[in-house]
Amino acid sequence: MIKTLLSQLQPFLNARLIGGDAQVSQVYTDSRQQCENGLFVALRGPHFDAHNFLPQVVEQGAAGIIVENESSLDIPQLVVSNSKLALGDLARFNRKRLNARFVAITGSSGKTTVKEMIASILQNVGTTFATKGNFNNDIGAPLTLLEMNEEHQFGVIELGANHAGEIAYTAAITQPDVALINNVAAAHLQGFGDLQGVARAKGEIYSELKNDGTAIVNNDDEFAPFWKKHITSSVLTFSAKGNGDVIATDIQLDENQCPQFELEYLNQSQKISLPLAGVHNVHNALAAAACCLALNISLEDICKGLSRSPVVTGRLMTELLANGCRLIDDTYNANLDSMRAAIQLLAGYKGRNILVIGDMAELGEFGRQCHEEVGEFAKLAGIDAMYSCGVLTQFSQSVYGGEGKHYSNQQQLIKQLKQEAKANTTILVKGSRSSHMEKVVLALMEDSEQQSKGAAFNMGEE
């Protein structure tokens, strides 16, 4: 945050200032954190109340606090009616003082990968700050904006949502120069009702663009015409099918399933080699490129940035185990589209391929149908074996109908997979965060490490 006095914040937050004034340069909400010149915002939720930890906050050196009820503690404090809304207003205050240019990203899948791609490109051009982890909701997005200061030239802000109106709120605070909806898929249907509801909620991001901003539209998405009808700013489109301003041609995959392609825009082209596996990442790269082109970044800088795109933890991370098995960790999250992309990737590897899935969450009444579609897609893709764990994945297993089994608990599943993990085999593990499929990945990696240590020990005896 750009340094400011509590007295400057008071009118902006419509707050009462008591206990004196103080200068602050950081904002935080975790009472366990020590923060120099920090302003602590005491949030309330259904199962917690940070006001209960104010003595600890003061003891750890907070410069000031934002509270809903005046505290008897000896510390400068801004008293507000709603501390969560005050956090958003703080972010607005900081955003207005920043000179950075902002890209805001939403979508059902791939938005974190696209965010990292854009950040990788912009870091070549200027000081860039991007959303950390999954800080993309109505608390995380304001906190992200509050981490920025006058040194930053670019901000890359990921916006997520599980209900209508959330993106309108966070996008209004962000005031992006460039806005992207990466795609719409069957994710968070429980909160949006249906795919049209998802598209409408994601579309809120375009209505909060700055007057001279640019809307980046995925021409391959079925809802592209719907969004274009409501966009009032300039539009830049992209397509992996050749139907856009920014397109990919001559797409090829290497032996590790990493794509190479020609990126084309306005009669210019640049050869791109991605370090990320999966043909679906061509789409993500086009989205990132279009966002950066809207900021007048050169194709050369875009190429450099994309070639250094980092692998997101839990997003198709590949590990070659000591026993020769290729293990792919795609446990970051899951929806129908990302499941299809993972299956398509798995099917491209030589040797035996095994799909391991946990439940996809927040699908509401569409839960059974979406899980059945996963099983059907795996069958049509020619996956050699599929194992599943959870509740809804039993429908995937039933439709798949091939080699494999559904398990009611992870320990049984892990026991089976340890027998399957061997040379010339690829195992891909995926599920929503709530299914905790990362535990399966960790167990297989630990088993491989133990096997490796055992083999080394036996060799030493000889």
What features would you describe in this structure?
Helix content is 38%, strand content 23%. The protein is α/β, with parallel strands linked by helices and 462 residues long. The protein folds into three domains: 4-81, MurE/MurF, N-terminal domain (Udp-n-acetylmuramoylalanyl-d-glutamate--2,6- Diaminopimelate Ligase, Chain: A, domain 1), CATH 3.40.1390.10; 98-307, UDP-N-acetylmuramoyl-L-alanine:D-glutamate ligase; 317-457, Alpha-Beta Complex (Protein-Tyrosine Phosphatase, Chain A). Strands 11-12-10-13-14-15-16-17-18 form a nine-stranded mixed β-sheet, with helices on both faces. It has a six-stranded mixed β-sheet with strand order 19-20-24-21-22-23, with helices on both faces. A five-stranded mixed β-sheet has the order 2-9-8-5-4. Strand 6 and strand 7 (48-49) form a beta hairpin. It is globular.
**Structural class determined from secondary elements:** alpha/beta
Note the gap between the termini: 62 Å
- How do the strands line up in the largest sheet? 11-12-10-13-14-15-16-17-18
Q: Can you give the helix content as a percent range? A: 25-40%
Radius of gyration: 24 Å
Q: Using DSSP, what is the number of strands?
A: 24
Q: What is the overall shape?
A: globular
Q: In the residues, how many domains can be counted?
A: 3
CATH topology of the largest domain: UDP-N-acetylmuramoyl-L-alanine:D-glutamate ligase
Fraction in beta strands: 15-25%
Largest sheet: 9 strands, mixed
**Average of per-residue pLDDT values:** 94
Question: Which superfamily, in CATH terms, is the homologous superfamily of the largest domain?
Answer: Mur-like, catalytic domain
CATH A-level architecture of the largest domain? 3-Layer(aba) Sandwich
**Which runs of at least 5 residues are low in confidence (pLDDT < 50)?**
456-462
Q: Total number of helical segments?
A: 17
The first-level CATH class name of the largest domain: Alpha Beta
